[in-house]
Structure formats: C-alpha cells, structure tokens
C-alpha cells in the first residue's frame, strides 16, 4: 500500500511498494543520535561498487524504517507555498517584442503551460498541445498527448526552436492511442518530446518511477530532477502484531532487499522501440549521513540533439529534495532531512501552573544544499554540498551572486496547536565553490516565518509575517558581514516580490487585519531606493479575493516598457468563487492605477466531459497585444485599453 498526505501536523505516510527481488540479510542496528551541527560543509562521495552501495543503503534505510514503512513524509507544520520567479528582459524576435516566462534567473527557463517566441504561442492544456500563429491568431497545429478521459492531467512546457518537451508531473498518464498496451510505463512523471517543425509529432518519451521535483533549461539542455523511494515489499501487517513486531518485519525486508530496489528506473520510448533502464550504481553518490529512504536523480536531455533519448547518463544522490534553483552554470538541489523525519517526536509537558497546550519537541531543522556544475553539455558534475539551519520557503530563498550563495530560512516555525512562537529567520552566505559559510544575519521576524524573499545583486528583501508584515532590507555586498539596513512594518503580507525598476519593488499578497486575518488580494509598490528607509508608495486592494500569483508567480506578468502588470484574480462571494479574470494594473514610479479586467467566455461540456475552465491562468505580451490563457482558450486584447481583438477557443 502507498499513501501520501501533503499538509498536516505530524502525519505519517504509508509508502511501502512492490519489490523487484531478494537477497541475503543481516541483523538490524539502533539508530544513532542526530548530529547537532546544523551549519557547514556536507561531504558527498561516490560508492566504490554495487556491493558497497547496497549495504550502505540497506543499513541507512533499516535505521529509518518505521512500523508503517518508509514514513519520511511525516510533516511538522508544513505550509505549501509559492515558487517565485523573476521576469526576464524583453527580447526581439522578428519585429515583435514579447514577454517570456516569469523566471527566477535570466537565461534559465522554467517549465510553464504556455511559451512564446513572438511569432507563435505554444500551449498545453487538458492533455492537448496547440500552436497558435501570433499574426493570424489562428490555431495552426494540434496534438493530443493523453487519452481524452485523462484530460485532467496537468502539464508544462519547455521549448527550444522547433522542439517542445511536455512535462506531465502526475503518475499513471496513458499516452494517446496506447490504451490497448499491456504496459505503458512505471506510472510516474512522463516527459514527451514533440517536433513542431511541421505537423506536430512525438519524437520520443521518458517515464520515470518516482516524483517530479522540478526542471531547468539553459540553451537547449534540460535538467530534470526526480525523487524516488526504494521498491521494497513490506510484509502485510497481522491484526494482532505489535508495533515492535511490525518494525522488526519491515527492517528485515529492508536488509534483504537487493541493490536494484534503490536504483531509480525509467522507461524510454525512442525510434519506435521501448527500453527500461536503471541508474548505474557507479553513478550514485551519498552524503556522510542519509536516510536511505529516497534518491534524487538528475536526467539531462538535449532538445537539439538528433536523438535526445538515445543515450541517457543520469546521476543520482542518496538524499531527499524538494527545491531546485538554477543559474547558467550551477544547479542547486536542497533537502531538509531533519524536517522529513521518520521517528516520532516528543511532547514536552508544561508546568502544572500553565494552562497552555503542550509544546511538541520538533527535531532540529537543517537544510542540505547540493550544487552541481552544469556549465558544460552532458551530465552535470557534482561540485559541493553544505547545510544551513532552518527550512527554505521556495527557490527564491536561494540566490547565487559574485561567487556566493545566499540562503534565507526560517527556524523553529511554530506547530499548529502550540501557543508559543519560537521561530526566527536568517540569511546565510555560503562560498559557492565549497558551500562553506562565510557570513550570516539572523534574528529576523521573531515569532514569525518567511513569506517571500527577493535577492537583487548585492541587496536582499525578506518578508516575514504573523500579524503584520515586516519587510526587511539587507546589505549583502560583504559576504562576511551581511546586515539588516531597514525595516518596514505594515498590515498584510507579500507572498511574491518583483523588481519594478531602479529603487522599486512590487509585492503581491494579501491585506490582513491587525490580528493577522487575510482580507483579500493586495498589490503594493515599495520604494526601496534608500535601503535604510523602505516605504510604501501605493497599494491596490480587492476584498474577498486571491490570486494564483501568490503561490505560483509564473502567473504574474510585468512588462517594464509600459508598466503593465497582469495577474489572475479570483473573487469570492458567500464562500464560493464568483468570478475568475485577469486583473490589469499600471505601475508607475509612485502609484498603482487600475487598467481593468479581462475575462474569458464559458464553454459548454463536450463529449460527456466537464467544460473547460475559463479561469485565466497566464498572461503574455506580443507587440501591442495582451494574450491571456485559460483551459477554454486564448484571448487577444489591446495591451493599452484591454479592448477585445480576438477569441481563440480550444475545441
């Protein structure tokens, strides 16, 4: 059985899976105490051979298995939050200036549901890839990639020239036309390569056994990061079995599992043939300390190669991973082994005189950071590892600048039910070559946690929140002595921060009452020209509303040429969604003004399936046109007046 619970307080996930074989075992050992040092370098080394790898993984996994199986998904006050990105500069393709995907780093693309090169718009919605000519505003090509009854499958795109890689993150995706096949893959994330040079056609595909973490693209090279758990069959629990008996049975299953149980597998379809491959044990590395309950794999695909799936050389690390950050030369993958912990936690009772609830004793939080060199084509090269206290919010908590990596984390985030807030945040500066710490500034937002982070060259901006929103400005130009230079306290919070020209910063989040209750979408314009005195210049507030841009800034568009800012806005009335449209604002040097809203028509159900959702997900600019994207279609509007110019329905 296999069960996963995403957001909870101290919940265990049941993650037993089918085995691929058996080998001899040995007795179990007690789990050693966790290390106390939370900051420093982490050594990552390769195994000398398959036997050493198998034994090392068996012993680590046996120490971390529980009576429920691999319960590394036990959470402590986890809060699913946004992945934030930075808009790249405008580019010129032909005669049409156009916006691009709102990414963290210029020159490093990220997967999204729509891409444009200024001449065409490429989208993937409800399992269908479409190409639209930007001049004629007509659909010129369509390709269904999954069976129609799997139109729920969410997918993103990465594009290089006339090659598109479609990323289906969910498991169990059945390729279109493959319903009669006895076997279509291991049921994990599926990556499909499509040729767009003529009538779209599938060139190949890869299906991996695991969970998609993220992907980054530089030039034509894509790096896919996947997380997997060992394929071990745990004995079925007996009704009268004790916790000790269950644990002992699971440990014996782990200690007798073959090395292949840990080696990530993937299916490749290329040139009309299918093959199953595994990561070789000579390409697996491990930190000094690891749980043995998960593996990170980095796959490299060159979209411009004649046979992109012809020869794959993935590398793997015996570690967890949940956040990916990339630059032109580095790929960072982070994990937090003390947060994802298989062991139960203690509840420390308070003195009898106190009426407060018991405070759960949470294991120390430590984020491990692994850096891979991706400056050359082909498989990445491991470069260094390190660790910092606390937990990241998202990829925007990381930033490489001037040969250093800045990392913003929150430590001691409060557990729901506890009445004592012990959290605080900090920024740690690491040498990018060794990931050894060179400096830090801590003590930010005591009793609060980070809601958004933005690093821009030698400066940094951190928003923490519990009842009010302190916006901290930081001077990071001296890596050995980072410091807070200013602080602004206002109601509400910014969940995403976006640069808006010299000395200006846009915040997207929620207004809140003085007690910290969210009151609706708020867009703020900050003056950060004086790092010692950040100030609010203007605000837009829409009551009873929210925006996808708060948790996925791919949904945020900022066009510097005209100050146009566009984001999806969902309005609530009586507890339900009353409408979903794109809100267009004009961001000036000192104020935010409302331009208007764009909405899509609602379509009816077809073929017995649910109607397409007209809620707008993305916006982009091509020339003087504003394009908005929903599952129902594309609308083209005048970017200055929002007047309708064309409606392109997705049939």
Automatic annotation (TrEMBL):
<feature type="compositionally biased region" description="Polar residues">
    <location>
        <begin position="89"/>
        <end position="104"/>
    </location>
</feature>
<protein>
    <recommendedName>
        <fullName>Benzoate transporter</fullName>
    </recommendedName>
</protein>
<keyword id="KW-0732">Signal</keyword>
<feature type="region of interest" description="Disordered">
    <location>
        <begin position="86"/>
        <end position="111"/>
    </location>
</feature>
<dbReference type="InterPro" id="IPR019198">
    <property type="entry name" value="Beta_propeller_containing"/>
</dbReference>
<feature type="signal peptide">
    <location>
        <begin position="1"/>
        <end position="23"/>
    </location>
</feature>
<dbReference type="Pfam" id="PF09826">
    <property type="entry name" value="Beta_propel"/>
</dbReference>
């Amino acid at each position: 059985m296999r069960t996963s619970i995403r957001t909870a307080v101290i919940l265990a996930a049941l993650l037993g899976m089918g085995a691929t074989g058996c080998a001899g075992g040995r007795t179990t050992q007690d789990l050693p105490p966790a290390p106390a040092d939370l900051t420093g370098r982490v050594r990552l080394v390769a195994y000398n051979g398959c036997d050493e790898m198998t034994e090392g993984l068996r012993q680590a996994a046996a120490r971390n298995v529980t009576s429920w199986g691999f319960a590394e998904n036990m959470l402590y006050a986890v809060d699913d939050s946004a992945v934030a990105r930075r808009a790249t500069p405008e580019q010129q393709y032909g005669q049409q200036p156009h916006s691009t995907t709102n990414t963290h780093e210029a020159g490093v693309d990220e997967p999204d549901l729509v891409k444009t090169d200024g001449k065409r718009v490429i989208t993937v919605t409800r399992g269908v890839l479409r190409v639209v000519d930007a001049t004629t505003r007509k659909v010129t090509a369509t390709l269904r990639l999954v069976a129609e009854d799997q139109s729920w499958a969410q997918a993103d795109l990465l594009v290089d020239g006339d090659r598109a890689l479609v990323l289906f993150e969910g498991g169990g995706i059945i390729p279109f036309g493959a319903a009669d096949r006895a076997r279509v893959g291991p049921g994990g994330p599926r990556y499909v390569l499509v040729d767009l040079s003529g009538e779209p056609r599938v060139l190949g595909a890869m299906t991996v056994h695991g969970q998609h973490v993220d992907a980054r693209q530089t030039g034509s090279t894509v790096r896919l990061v996947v997380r997997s758990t060992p394929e071990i069959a745990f004995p079925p629990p007996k009704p009268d079995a004790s916790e000790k008996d269950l644990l002992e049975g699971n440990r014996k299953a782990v200690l007798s599992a073959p090395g292949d149980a840990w080696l990530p597998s993937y299916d490749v379809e290329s040139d009309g043939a299918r093959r199953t491959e595994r990561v070789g044990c000579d390409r697996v590395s491990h930190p000094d300390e690891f749980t043995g309950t998960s593996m990170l794999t980095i796959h490299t695909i060159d979209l411009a190669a004649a046979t992109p799936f012809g020869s794959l050389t993935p590398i793997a690390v015996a570690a967890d991973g949940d956040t990916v950050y990339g630059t032109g030369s580095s790929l960072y993958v982070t994990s937090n082994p003390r947060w994802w912990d298989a062991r139960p936690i203690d509840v420390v009772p308070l003195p009898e005189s106190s009426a407060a609830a018991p405070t759960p004793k949470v294991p120390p939080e430590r984020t491990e950071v692994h850096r891979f060199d991706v400056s050359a084509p082909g498989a990445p090269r491991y470069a260094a590892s390190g660790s910092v206290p606390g937990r990241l919010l998202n990829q925007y908590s990381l930033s490489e600048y001037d040969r250093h990596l800045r990392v913003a984390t929150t430590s001691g985030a409060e557990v729901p039910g506890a009445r004592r807030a012990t959290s605080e945040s900090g920024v740690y500066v690491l040498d990018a070559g060794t990931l050894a710490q060179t400096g830090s500034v801590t003590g930010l937002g005591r009793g609060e946690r980070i809601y958004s982070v933005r690093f821009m060259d030698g400066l940094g901006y951190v928003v923490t929140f519990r009842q009010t929103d302190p916006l901290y400005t930081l001077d990071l130009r001296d890596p050995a002595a980072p410091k807070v230079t200013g602080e602004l306290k206002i109601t509400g919070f910014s969940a995403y921060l976006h640069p808006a020209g010299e000395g200006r910063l846009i915040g997207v989040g929620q207004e809140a009452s003085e007690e910290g209750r969210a009151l609706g979408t708020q867009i703020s314009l900050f003056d950060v020209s004086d790092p010692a005195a950040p100030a609010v210049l203007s605000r837009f507030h829409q009551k009873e509303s929210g925006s996808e841009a708060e948790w996925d800034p791919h949904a945020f568009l900022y066009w510097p040429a005209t100050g146009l800012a566009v984001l999806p806005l969902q309005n609530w009335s009586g507890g339900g969604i009353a409408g979903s449209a794109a809100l267009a604002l004009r961001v000036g040097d000192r104020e935010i003004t409302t331009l208007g809203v764009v909405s899509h028509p609602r379509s009816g159900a077809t073929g017995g399936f649910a109607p397409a959702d007209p809620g707008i997900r993305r916006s982009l600019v091509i020339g003087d046109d504003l394009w908005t994207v929903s599952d129902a279609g594309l609308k083209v509007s005048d970017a200055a007046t929002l007047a309708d110019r064309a409606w392109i329905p997705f049939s």
